[in-house]
């Protein structure tokens, strides 16, 4: 046997060993798994460890690091998730996540980024959407490039263009155009600031509008 033939056979043998190891949990039946998963598509129940998928990873509960070419999603996710297109924690997510296009889910605790959009029911931490960010309740910092919308903000809401709070803003709102549909307890800072309800704080901008105030430009004190 010459050296070239031996090298080819050794390479094939090692490849088969690696392939067999990767195939260990590649079936579509949901089950528990601890360790390392490397497969184009993974559909497991409870996973603890590292999962790298060419296409997607889908779990009921995941703890560890999950990387998917297109999608990473779980009902409850603890750890780090990276999806080429999206990351979803339908019930809860604790940790750090990046979705190439979208990121969101139920309750999030940590740091999250969506290339185009970020949407969440409850945010405790920092959430960012490239073009659009939408949250029901924010405890922390809610951010976007073009449009940031939240029902309730306890903390900070920012956007380059437009920041909109539906119910109550407790903290600070920064954008070229800010709007609080109900109550402001804190400050609005922008070129144009509008509040439809009581302002307990201050508006800082070229145009400031709020009921029960003098609507002064530049600095408009609340009630």
Explain the overall architecture:
Helix content is 9%, strand content 68%. The relative contact order is 0.06. With 223 residues, the chain is mostly beta strands. It is built from 1 helix and 17 strands. The protein has a 17-stranded mixed β-sheet that branches. The chain is elongated, with a radius of gyration of 24 Å. Residues 2-29 have low confidence and may be disordered.
Question: Any idea what the shape is?
Answer: elongated
Q: Helix coverage percent of residues?
A: under 10%
Q: Radius of gyration over alpha carbons?
A: 24 Å
Q: Main beta sheet: strand number and arrangement?
A: 17 strands, mixed
- Measured by DSSP, the beta-strand proportion falls in over 45%
**Cα end-to-end separation:** 92 Å
Compute the number of strand runs.
17
Number of helices: 1
Structural class: mainly beta
SSE run: HEEEEEEEEEEEEEEEEE
What would the average pLDDT be, to the nearest integer?
Answer: 86
Topology, element by element:
Blueprint: H1 3-22, E1 33-38, E2 41-43, E3 46-53, E4 56-68, E5 71-83, E6 86-99, E7 102-114, E8 117-129, E9 132-144, E10 147-159, E11 162-174, E12 177-180, E13 183-189, E14 192-195, E15 199-205, E16 207-209, E17 218-221
Parallel strand pairs: 1-3, 2-4, 3-4, 4-5, 5-6, 6-7, 7-8, 8-9, 9-10, 10-11, 11-12, 11-13, 12-14, 13-15, 14-16
Antiparallel strand pairs: 15-17
């Amino acid at each position: 046997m010459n050296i070239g033939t031996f090298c080819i056979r050794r390479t094939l043998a090692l490849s088969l060993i690696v392939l067999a190891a990767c195939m260990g949990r590649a079936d579509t039946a949901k089950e528990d798994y601890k360790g390392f998963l490397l497969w184009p598509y993974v559909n497991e129940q409870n996973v603890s460890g590292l999962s790298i998928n060419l296409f997607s990873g889908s779990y009921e509960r995941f703890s560890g690091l999950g990387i998917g070419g297109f999608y990473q999603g779980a009902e409850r996710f603890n750890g780090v998730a990276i999806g080429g297109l999206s990351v979803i924690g339908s019930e809860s997510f604790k940790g750090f996540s990046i979705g190439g296009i979208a990121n969101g889910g139920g309750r999030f605790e940590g740091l999250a980024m969506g290339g185009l959009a970020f949407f969440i029911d409850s945010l405790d931490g920092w959430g960012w959407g490239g073009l659009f960010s939408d949250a029901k309740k924010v405890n922390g910092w809610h951010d976007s490039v073009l449009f940031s919308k939240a029902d309730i903000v306890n903390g900070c809401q920012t956007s380059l263009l437009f920041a909109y709070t539906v119910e109550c803003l407790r903290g600070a709102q920064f954008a070229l155009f800010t709007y609080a549909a109900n109550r402001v307890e804190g400050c609005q800072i922008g070129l144009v600031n509008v509040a439809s309800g009581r302002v307990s704080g201050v508006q800082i901008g070229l145009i400031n509008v709020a009921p029960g105030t003098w609507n002064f430009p530049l600095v408009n004190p609340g009630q």
